[in-house]
Specification:
Rhopdopsin 7-helix transmembrane proteins; single chain; Heat Shock Protein 90; two-stranded antiparallel ribbon; 13 helices; 569 residues; alpha+beta; 10% strand; five-stranded mixed sheet
Length: 569
């Protein structure tokens, strides 16, 4: 069955209530089955309608108490729908159910032999019968008004000048006042009404009165049928009017008087008529309640998912921010270093060349200085040695400048398919001098596949820096471990050592240029920043974690998609 649609939209809102949901073929079949079963029961009871049965006055109190409760609950539910839809027709219908509840209660009080021999409230033998007529005429009239207020476009709205609470209170007051007035007419004003009861039997006048009352039920049924489109409420109101017709027929038309089979059967139909709409409203309320909790659960799930996505996005944003800060820092420092290296390089080269010349010249003079005294020869030797030492010092400065220039030129490098395993082995060869006389074990755990689209020359430099850093960390004895592998997102290289590790307070600074934990003269503080920039050049990340060997472990993660790397290149 297709999803339900509203027959009309009160105030432009789709409200899935009985008064606004269209009736489908399945709903019509269900309602028709109820009417047919009611009709079969009616036809079976008609031949025996005049059969007298035992008088049970308590039946009236039980029946009408249940009827009153049913009508009041129905009215409350209809008032609540009016509160949402503001449809004037619903307000009228709710008032009709409330009116039947009021007059049913008063009818029960005046019924002879129930609470008093002639009934309460100053009732006469005619009072209860006339109140039944008022009761069964008032509800069909209200249904006719409901049908007239219904248009193809929807239910007529209440006046905008009238608030919802005021409208509801006004209808409650009107229903109560009308019921009280009719009771007053049937009791204190009984002289103005013709007699329709002769003991427990009906008088000839009853035929005319009941004909009018019965005709109103048929008119209400016809009015509901004619006013299309039919909502679910319209459909079940038609079922109610059919039961109402059977009620009047058995209670007054085809029976002979009170306490015969028609009298009891008619009351049963009256209770069914009061229950049909209530049952549908309660089923609807249950469906709305179930839908509410279902949607609440869905909203909670969606909210949790949104929170998870937000937390994940926030973490990614933080990580990206850290990477951007590092990248910006490296870029700006690279530009600064490039300028410094350039400014230092020229005078440095000039000084080294001339110091070499000075040392060479002094060496020649020393060989030709036979005429010099021993003291003069000593001075020449010292001068030559100082020149050699100065040149050695400048060579160290030149090496530092070279590394600074390397740091500043990390954007250079050709990207191509390379074997990462070979790059690591090459870096190990370059730094083997650092560990050749130590008790340092190098463990290599390469993955099965190590081909990667990368700038192999730059990666060699990064591996060399990290391996040299690990060698310094382990000291005279320890373990250096190199592992490679793939996961769903990246190719990774992990270089770990069994050294003392990196204190937590220094983890955020280890990639800063010129920051080092080594003793003065043993490190420049550029190895890790250079490695960081090389990995960033590959659009990868480098993380520092605590190694299971006891020291630090640097994990390089490089993108696995070659197209991304080609775009970078």
């Amino acid at each position: 069955m297709p999803a339900r649609t509203t027959a009309y939209e009160p105030l432009g809102k789709q409200m899935e209530f009985l008064s606004s949901v269209s009736a489908y073929q399945d709903d019509r079949r269900r309602a028709l089955c109820v009417v047919l079963f009611s009709l079969l029961g009616f036809l079976a009871a008609v031949p025996f309608a005049r059969v007298p049965l035992v008088q049970i006055p308590a039946f009236i109190s039980i029946y009408q108490s249940a009827l009153i409760i049913s009508d009041v609950i129905t009215a409350v539910l209809l008032f609540s729908q009016f509160n949402f839809s503001r449809a004037l027709a619903l307000l009228v219908l709710a008032g009709a159910y409330l009116f039947t509840a009021f007059i049913a209660a008063l009818h029960m009080l005046t019924f002879p032999g129930l609470f008093a021999p002639t009934g309460l409230l100053g009732a006469t033998p005619q009072s209860t019968a006339w109140m039944y007529m008022f009761w069964h005429a008032g509800f069909p009239l209200a249904v006719i008004v409901y049908a007239l207020l219904k248009t193809p476009e929807g239910l007529a709205e209440r006046p905008s000048s009238l608030s919802t609470h005021t409208a509801v209170l006004s209808v409650i007051a009107c229903a109560a006042i009308l019921a009280c007035c009719l009771v007053a007419l049937a009791t204190a004003g009984h002289a103005f009404l013709p007699a329709i009861m002769q003991g427990n039997r009906y008088s000839p006048t009853m035929i005319a009165v009941i004909s009018v009352v019965w005709a109103l039920s048929f008119l209400a049924l016809g009015a509901l049928w004619m006013r299309r489109p039919h909502s679910l409420l319209d459909l079940w109101l038609m079922v109610v009017m059919c039961a109402w017709i059977f009620d009047i027929a058995l209670s007054v038309v085809f029976n002979a008087g009170r306490f015969d089979l028609g009298f009891y059967a008619g009351r049963i139909y009256g209770f069914l008529a009061a229950s049909y709409v209530l049952v549908e409203l309660l089923l609807e309320a249950g469906q709305l309640y179930a839908r509410f909790w279902q949607e609440k659960a869905q909203h909670a799930e969606m909210l949790q998912k949104a929170n998870d996505d937000l937390e994940r996005a926030y973490r990614e944003l933080q990580e990206t921010q850290v990477q951007l800060i590092h990248t910006a820092k490296m870029t700006s420092l690279g530009e600064l270093v490039a300028g410094i290296a350039h400014e230092i390089n020229n005078p440095l080269t000039y000084s080294m060349m001339h110091l070499g010349t000075v040392a060479s010249t002094l060496g020649k003079l020393e060989g030709e200085a036979s005429s010099l005294t021993d003291k003069g020869t000593s001075y020449l030797e010292k001068a030559r040695q100082r020149a050699v030492d100065a040149r050695a010092g400048l060579e160290r400065v030149a090496n530092l400048v070279s590394r600074l220039r390397t740091f500043s030129r990390l954007d250079e490098g050709e990207f191509k398919d390379a074997d990462v395993k070979e790059c690591v082995e090459s870096a190990l060869d370059f730094m083997s001098y650092k560990i050749k006389d130590r008790k340092v074990e190098v463990r290599k755990e390469f993955g099965e596949e190590n081909r990667l689209f990368c700038a192999s020359g730059l990666l060699n430099q990064a591996f060399l820096n990290l391996l040299a850093n690990a060698a310094d960390a382990v000291g005279e004895e320890g373990i250096i471990r190199i592992r490679t592998g793939w996961d769903d997102k990246s190719y990774w290289i992990a270089i770990a050592d069994s050294g003392s590790g990196v204190p937590d307070a220094l983890r955020d600074r280890i990639f800063e240029p010129f920051f080092t934990t080594k003793e003065v003269g043993q490190g420049t503080g550029l190895g890790l920043p250079i490695a960081y920039r090389i990995v960033d050049r590959h659009q990868g990340v480098i993380d520092l974690v605590k190694s299971d060997l006891g020291g630090a472990e640097f994990i390089l993660r490089l993108p696995v998609n070659p197209e991304e790397q080609k775009h970078v290149a």
